[in-house]
Amino acid sequence: VTKNSSNQWNPPPFKNAVHVLLVGGYAFLLALHVVPFFTPLHCAPEGSSLVGKFGALLNVASPSSSSSSSLCCRYNYAMRDFEAHQMNRNYCSGRVRVAFAGSWSTGKTYLIGALLGRNYSTAQSAPAPAGAPYSDPVRSDDYERRRHCEIMEHVNDVVRSGCGGRAMANVLDVADENEEFGDFVFFDMPGWQTEYGSDCVYRTFFRQLIEKVDFTYVVWDVNHGKIEDQFAEFFQNKARGTNYELIYNRYTRDSSDMSFLNQQYAKMSTGQEILSEMYTARVHENNTHLATHFQDDVYRLRSKRKSVNQTVHDNRKKMMKENLILHRDKISGIDSLRRLKICDRLIEEDLNLHVEPRGYRWQWLGLEL
């Protein structure tokens, strides 16, 4: 820096590049500390906040963001580097997937028809190996509309990868929807047949489908005898009431055999729980003498949908929370502060089953305060 003729200091030369870099650097650091307080643009429900509206205006939000779960989106954002633990964006608020499983001809299809309030053409395809007696699929009227169910595509992909590229020749169908069960999808599973249990495709198909649905009703009928050992293995790592429930179908007081049912249930459970007649879901034989009892049983099953719905969504939240706690310390990257803040908010509040999520005064701005 030099002086002029008046002995005053000349202004220092303005080095544009250096000043721009400094201003840009400070702005970047400031943004890194401010951005964590805002919900990601693609996770803000369209129209529900200023951020969401801004994202929609810029076409930043994905086409399905308005129907996707913001909770799932924020969870996926926090778990972005752990692809194995990310989930479908519709998973959190998506429809509850309920499977009806059991041996062949125990009344699964009939029960679904009773719950839906009408008889429908059988919505299943018997997944026997190619060339087996039951290899020809039985398709319902709207088979083409429902055959490309997302869960079924995934199950078939897993079967192919684990069984040398082979998969079932026919596709499992899903039950119809009605207004009462609009939040549910019913899977009418083919009856388990022991003679095909050693086949890789057959066994993997059943295992994967039972693992992927949210809840399973195991339909048991005393007239069809025991629960097969291979079938019982699918439920040994699951909790009755949380992951599955037994239905004593075609029940009559004169021929009820709870001791036999408990003997069979012991194959599915690793604990010492004993089923009681009073607390076991049962459906009476639908005949002239027991028609009223049958209607009452179906009504109770319909009423139970609310508890099943709550149980499934609680399980989803618990799984997400466990994953976040397990991987929280491994979160890294330039946006790690933002992901950690979202992670903590999900763990402490949004995914906490015992605490009601508190309202946020600045939520309309998309703030994560």
Summary?
The chain has 369 residues and is α/β, with parallel strands linked by helices.
3D architecture notes:
With 369 residues, the chain is of the alpha/beta class. The chain contains twelve helices and five strands. Helices cover 38% and strands 8% of the residues. It has a five-stranded parallel β-sheet with strand order 2-1-3-4-5. Helix 3 (70-78) packs across helix 12 and helix 6 (150-162) packs antiparallel against helix 7. The longest helix has 23 residues, at 305-327. Residues 51-68, 123-128 and 134-141 have low confidence and may be disordered.
Uncertain residue ranges: 51-68, 123-128, 134-141
- Encode the helix/strand succession as letters: HHHEHHHEHEHEHEHHH
Largest sheet: 5 strands, parallel
Strand runs, count: 5
Q: Rough shape? A: elongated
Percent range of helical residues: 25-40%
Going by helix content, strand content and strand pairing, the class is alpha/beta
Output the radius of gyration: 28 Å
- Note the beta-strand portion: 5-15%
* Distance linking N and C termini: 48 Å
Order of neighbouring strands in the sheet with most strands: 2-1-3-4-5
- So how many helices? 12
Q: What is the mean pLDDT?
A: 76
Which short descriptors sum up this protein?
single chain; 369 residues; alpha/beta; 12 helices; 5 strands; 38% helix
Layout of helices and strands, plus pairs?
Elements: H1 16-34, H2 50-57, H3 70-78, E1 96-102, H4 108-116, H5 143-146, H6 150-162, E2 184-188, H7 200-212, E3 215-221, H8 229-232, E4 244-251, H9 258-268, E5 281-284, H10 291-303, H11 305-327, H12 336-350
Parallel strand pairs: 1-2, 1-3, 3-4, 4-5
Helix pairs in contact: 3-12, 6-7
